[in-house]
Amino acid sequence: MEYLKPMEIEKRSMEIISEELRGIKIPPENRDVLMRVIHTTADFDYVENLKFSDGAVAAGIEAIKNGAHIVTDTNMAFSGINKRLVRSLGGDVHCFMADPDVAGQAKARGVTRAAVSIEKACTLKHELIFAVGNAPTALMRLDEMIKRRKIKPKLIIGVPVGFVNVVEAKELIMQSGVPYIVAQGRKGGSNVAAAICNALLYKIKR
After folding, report:
1. What is the mean pLDDT of residues 88-92?
2. pLDDT class for 3, splitting at 50, 70, 90?
3. Lowest-pLDDT range of 3-7, 52-56, 138-142, 189-193
4. What would the DSSP string read from start to end of 69-103?
5. pLDDT tens for residues 22-48?
6. d(CA 82, CA 174)
7. What is the SS3 assignment for 181?
8. Residue (of 199, 206, 164, 168) closest to 46 by Cα position
9. d(CA 130, CA 108)
10. Closest to 94 in 3D by CA, of 76, 112, 71
11. Angle (deg, nearest 10), helices 113-121 and 100-109
12. Which distant-in-sequence residues (6+ apart) come within 8 Å of 27 by Cβ?
C-alpha cells in the first residue's frame, strides 16, 4: 500500500471520480461542484440527485466575487467552508444557531433556531448565499421570506439530510425562483453544503 501526501490523495481521488464519470453527460459548469460533492461523500448517487437551476453556479461565483456573505445552519458547515478565501474576496461566513438571541426567540415563540437564524440573516446588509445542510425549517422559512419579499438570495444551497419535511422543503426552494443547488431527496448534510461552497470558491481561485 502506497502512502501519499494529502494533496496527492485528493488529486488521485479526483482522477478516480473523473474516470467513473466518463460517458455521463454533465454540464461543464456544474462538473467541478458535483465532483467535489462526490469526493466528500464517496456517493455517486449525487450524479442524479444534485440539481442545479440554470446558471446557478455562475450566479454563486458572481456573488462571491462581489463580496457576498454565506449563511449556514450548522457550525459543522461553518467550520468546513474556506473562510480565508471568502474573506479574501470581501465576504464572510455566518452561523447564528448558537447566538443567545436566536435561542431565546426560538424558545419564546416555539419555533426552531434554524427558522430564527434565517430571520436574523435577513437583517444583514450584504448579498447573501444560504448553505443549508441540516435544517429543513431553514429552507421553509427562507421560502416564506422570499415570498414576502423580505430577502432575495443570490443562491440557495439546499442540502439538508433526513426524513421529516426534508424532501418537501427542498422542493419549495426549487420552485422559489431563486438560483439553487439542491440535493433532491433525503440525502445531503453539512459536509455537502460546505463542499459546494468550497467548490465555488476553488473555481474562482483556480
Report:
1. 97
2. low
3. 3-7
4. EEEES-HHHHHHS-HHHHHHTT--EE--TT-HHHH
5. 999 999 999 999 999 999 999 999 999
6. 26
7. strand
8. 199
9. 25
10. 71
11. 120
12. 52
Calculate the average pLDDT of the chain: 95
Predicted pLDDT at 2: 60
| Catalytic status, residue 69 | no
Pick the catalytic residue: 39, 69, 94, 126? 39
Alpha carbons within 13 angstroms on the beta-carbon side of residue 136 total 18
Three cell numbers, residue 150: 423580505
Residue matched to cell numbers 468550497: 198
**What band does 4 get if pLDDT is binned at 50, 70 and 90?**
low
Around Cβ 150, how many Cβ atoms within 10 Å? 13
Whether 155 shows a pLDDT value over 80: the answer reads yes
Measured distance CA(104)–CA(176) in Å, rounded: 29
Mention every residue, 6+ apart, whose C-beta is less than 8 A from residue 148: none
Q: Is the pTM of this model over 0.90?
A: yes
Q: What are phi and psi of 128, to 5 degrees?
A: -125, 140
**Strand, coil or helix: what is 139?**
helix
d(Cα 203, Cα 109) in Å, to the nearest integer?
41
Q: Which residues pair with 128 in a beta bridge?
A: 69
